[in-house]
Amino acid sequence: MKETRAESPAVNLELILQPETSLERLILKDKPFRRGLLWGVPRYGHPEGEVYKHIRDVFDNIDRLTIDQLSRERLRLVALVHDSFKHKENKRRPRDWAQHHGVLARDFLANYTDDEVALKITEIHDEAYYVWRLKVLYKREAEGRQRLIKLLEQLGEYRQLFYLFFKCDTCTGDKIQSPLKWFENNIPGIEVVDLQLR
Fold this sequence. Notes:
There is one protein chain. By secondary structure, the protein is an all-alpha fold. It has one domain (about 15-185). The chain has helices at about 15, 20-30, 30-35, 50-65, 70-80, 100-110, 115-125, 125-135, 140-155, 160-170, 180-185. The N and C termini lie far apart (about 40 Å).
């Protein structure tokens, strides 16, 4: 799944994604970045196919949150770039975590902002899923516990913001909801939100 198609005039990314800040508009002008937005075919978890369609779904979920402007800007920034480098990710075994799409997205975003909160959440946006997979799916409790401790240390006081992104990202496509439910039921210091309420 490494193919990237040329941008079609039929895909107006600005119209679809509706950038709200000068930073979002600037990032959307980056041609290699735009190629990543157009990557993807329908698959489990992402029946929508291309990355830009998933970002639109995450943006729509962010719209359902009652949050302050800074949190909104950070969540949208993370949403805009978080999966945009999946086409460059190396998934060969053993896994090279330095080439995870979240790390690649963080490295890209660091060219545009020094907001460490947005950068960190971008980098580790899938980490709660990996913790759930270790602890619940694979029953590797000790390993999962260590990974969870590291995640919570990395998040510090931004645990709630990370959770909000995790929720907005997970409640798209046909992603399994078990990791999100596990997070909501087991992680202290978060306020569970309902995306249906506004």
